[in-house]
Design a protein that fits this description.
Number of helices: 5
Number of domains: 1
Strand content: under 5%
Radius of gyration: 13 Å
Order of helices and strands: HHHHH
Length: 95
């Protein structure tokens, strides 16, 4: 797997996150027949440390909101927004 989302110790979380998003979009564009479940499985394995811990700690309802989406690109946008609000924007606002 070429794209791992690891914001721990990153000097620029926003840049790290943007690089990961571009990579995941490339993967999705190459695998146009993937279902949301297939793509989410791939994404889940790209999380590292803080992001992985956060995702693992989501309750069943929180994960189901993401999993029930029919279109992989829509699911990815929603998941990115959640990550961005929790870890990227929050860090920028803190500075």
């Amino acid at each position: 797997m070429g794209y791992i989302l690891n914001i721990d110790g990153a000097s620029n979380r926003e840049e790290t996150f943007d690089h990961w998003k571009r990579g995941m979009n490339s993967i999705l564009n190459l695998n146009i027949i993937w279902t949301t479940k297939n793509f989410l499985n791939y994404i889940e394995h790209s999380f590292s440390y803080t992001i992985a811990d956060w995702y693992d700690s989501l309750n069943k309802e929180g994960k189901n909101v993401i999993k029930i989406m029919k279109i992989p690109a829509t699911m990815f946008k929603k998941l990115c927004k959640k990550i961005e609000n929790k870890f990227i924007r929050a860090k920028l606002d803190f500075k």
